[in-house]
Write a structure and sequence with these properties.
382 residues; alpha+beta; Aminopeptidase
Length: 382
């Protein structure tokens, strides 16, 4: 018999226990650190949720936790565009439609009471780099920040009434193989021509790096997203401070035109190669282990890659990517995961597919459920 408990904002031990029970025999699963989930819903640390609200539920069967869900909405994204949409995060559930429906019902009813007309999942408050989407293809060990779930999850969502809002494609690049000669030759030509300059982040990730990131992010994302909210430097200052211990400045590159930043490529070592043994715990001993082992990580994930639209036809994007990957090779990186690219961006998908040493590795989907019967479902097209 199932019993669902409204936990409010209480991240209890049972909440974090759920995935350990579901994936106990799955060698592909790597537990997201408990503190990482808490930080996402920390009003002081995440400005997105500061302007909204959230609630979580845990589902029990005969006293054992078998499911969990977080529902949330944010002022910036939920109430600036119709249909007003909230989200569900860190959903986990046994293979039972009855169990899943109890979790979905609780989240939907709470979001409906908050004025939401639609629900997106699985997503998080804030930017969509990490913990975004349901895995439907490529059930292997995921890079840090890329969700992993069992194959039946998509069925649970679809049977409730969720529909695919957009697909998210990820690619793996084998850096032990050479890029096609024509690609390298053209990238070198752009670099040597001198119209643009390139440089990686400073050793200590200084204020200049924060400023560059802010400028490129706002210039690029505002051009592609009509509802883009202008981001202040303070936002990236917090992120840089948190990521310093796990970042490598040679994985973070900027492109400049007359000293003005016009593009950036930001990648990080794949922390899942380390977190695999931590079981979600990030105490002092595990932090020390991470600092010690991170130098030996041979895999990285590209989180952000963007170039000012004014320079899309200049060749600067290819040169920026080449500079970054050459630096990664020198640091011992053998594989680069580029994730993720929405199906609404066919141009970038084509570029990633035809790099010469890349393969399509996996697909996630973001799904949407319509609460308001007067709203017609439409797929996301950017």
């Amino acid at each position: 018999m199932f019993k669902i408990l409204d936990e409010g904002k209480n991240f209890s031990k049972s909440f974090f226990l759920v995935p350990h029970l579901i994936y106990q025999d799955d060698l592909n699963w790597v537990c997201v650190p408990d503190i990482a989930i808490k930080n996402i819903f920390n009003r002081e640390g995440n400005p997105a949720i500061k302007s909204g609200d959230y609630n979580l539920w845990i589902l029990y069967e005969n006293g054992e936790p078998v499911g969990r869900i977080i529902a949330f909405w944010t002022e910036s994204k939920s109430k600036n565009k119709r249909p007003y949409s909230g989200g569900i995060s860190f959903f986990e559930c046994i293979d039972s439609q009855e169990a899943a429906n109890l979790l979905f019902d609780s989240a939907v009813e709470w979001l409906k009471a908050a004025g939401m007309q639609a629900v997106d999942g699985v997503i998080v408050p804030g930017e969509n780099y990490n913990h975004w989407g349901i895995l439907i293809d490529g059930f292997s060990k995921q890079g840090f920040g890329m969700p992993y779930n069992l194959p039946y999850y998509k069925k649970l969502f679809e049977n409730y009434g969720f529909k695919v809002y957009f697909e998210q494609n990820s690619y793996h690049v084998d850096l032990s193989k050479e890029f096609p000669e024509r690609h390298v030759k053209f990238a070198k030509h752009i670099v040597e021509k001198g119209d643009f300059s390139f440089g990686h982040a400073g050793k200590k990730m200084n204020q200049k790096d924060v400023r560059n990131t802010t400028i490129v992010f706002n210039d690029v994302w505002s051009a592609f997203h009509a509802n883009h909210q202008f981001v202040e430097e303070e936002y990236f200052e917090k992120i840089v401070k948190e990521l310093k211990p796990v970042s490598n400045p040679k994985f973070i590159w900027f492109a400049y035109k007359d000293d003005y930043p016009i593009g950036m490529a930001i990648a990080f070592p794949d922390l899942n190669l380390i977190f695999d043994k931590f079981k979600g715990k990030f105490h002092l001993l595990n932090k020390l282990k991470m600092v010690h082992k991170i130098k030996n990580v041979n895999r990285a994930r590209l989180l952000v890659f963007g170039v000012n639209p004014k320079y899309h036809s200049s060749g600067v994007a290819g040169a920026l990517f080449w500079k970054m990957t050459e630096a990664m090779k020198e640091e011992g990186i053998e594989e680069l995961e580029m994730s993720w690219v929405g199906d609404y961006n066919p141009k970038v998908n084509r570029i990633y597919k035809h790099l010469g040493n890349s393969t399509h590795a996996k697909t996630h989907v973001t799904m949407r459920y319509i609460i308001d019967s007067d709203i017609i479902f439409e797929r996301f097209t950017n």
